[in-house]
Design goal:
The protein is mainly β. The chain contains 2 helices and 14 strands, in the order βαββββαβββββββββ. The chain has a single domain, classed as Beta Barrel (Lipocalin), CATH 2.40.128. The radius of gyration is 29 Å and the shape is elongated.
Length: 295
């Protein structure tokens, strides 16, 4: 089954102007007819007009910065689901998940991020359609077609944006918080080839929406796209599921591929869902490695 930081530069332009001779130089005769060099005016930061230096992020404050990160998440799964009264065991190890790649009918995982000044948003989409097997009784195995669609939409606001380090390795600590929603849609179709009665066959689906509270902390280098990102959210609160939470730890690294810079993400992600509804229950924990690219 397949199912989820920004860096900015700090620039300053230093200019030195030539000031006019002072009144004291005009009143006192000089020993030499050749005037000496004029005293330099005070150094100013920012534009050559002498206006105050702009804030580190002012150059990008009015522009949207967009990124797209397709990724692959290969989790182990622990849990079970009951769809319209029919229980199904969803336990699968990481090896099982990798084996299920051969049973994929379709899958997509990706994250779109938009940032403008202290505001940001992201849309994370997971879709998977895989085939599983579940043992109902000794000698009786069910073929299961399990489809999952999960969409996260979250608005974020920067709480901390602080540079640190020295010129040889200037970094930025950025902490953001926000809220949004996560949409779930599960569909399960079960068939039992060895059951001539067809009584074990069933089909069902369930859809709900969870509110979310999200936080993200990132430490990034300012001269390139390297850094670490921690993300966490919690939600549900009985509005959709009873409780859902998600955590991920991501390492972002910039590498050269055929003499071109390429930003790579890899790390670990865990997602838990506890949903209870009319004739439908889902208790599932998924955790495993992920890898992706950032464009």
């Amino acid at each position: 089954m397949i199912l989820s930081a920004v860096a900015t530069g700090l620039f300053a332009c230093v200019t030195v102007g030539d000031g006019p001779p002072s009144a004291m130089h005009a009143a006192i005769p000089l020993a030499s007819p050749t005037p000496g060099p004029a005293a330099p005016a005070p150094t100013t930061l920012g534009l050559e007009t002498g206006r105050p230096a702009a804030a580190p992020h002012a150059a990008r404050a009015d522009q949207w910065q967009l990124s797209f990160a397709p990724y692959v998440w290969a989790p182990s799964t622990n849990g079970d689901a009951t769809i319209f009264g029919q229980p199904t065991d969803l336990d699968a190890s990481l090896i099982d998940s990798l084996k299920d790649l051969t049973s994929l009918k379709g899958a997509f995982q990706g994250r779109v991020t938009a940032d403008r000044g202290v505001f940001g948003a992201y849309l994370d989409i997971n879709y998977a359609d895989v085939g599983l097997e579940s043992e109902l009784a000794p000698g009786l195995t069910a073929d299961i077609d399990f489809r999952l669609t999960m969409v996260e939409a979250v608005m974020m606001h920067t709480l901390i944006d602080r540079p640190f380090g020295d010129a040889s390795g200037l970094k930025t600590l950025r902490v953001r918080g926000g809220g949004g929603m996560r949409y779930y849609s599960y569909r399960l179709d079960q068939s039992v080839p060895d059951d001539p009665t067809g009584l074990a066959e069933m089909s069902g689906s369930k859809t709900w929406i969870d509110p979310l509270i999200s936080v993200e902390a990132a430490v990034m280098r300012q001269d390139r796209g390297d850094g670490f990102i921690l993300r966490a959210d919690v939600g549900g609160f009985g509005a959709g599921s009873e409780l859902t939470w998600q955590v991920s730890a991501i390492r972002r690294a910039q590498i050269n591929f055929r003499r071109k810079p390429l930003t790579l993400e890899f790390g670990y992600k865990a997602l838990s869902v506890d949903y209870e509804g009319d004739h439908s229950d889902v208790q599932i924990l998924q955790h495993g490695p992920l890898i992706g690219l950032v464009f």
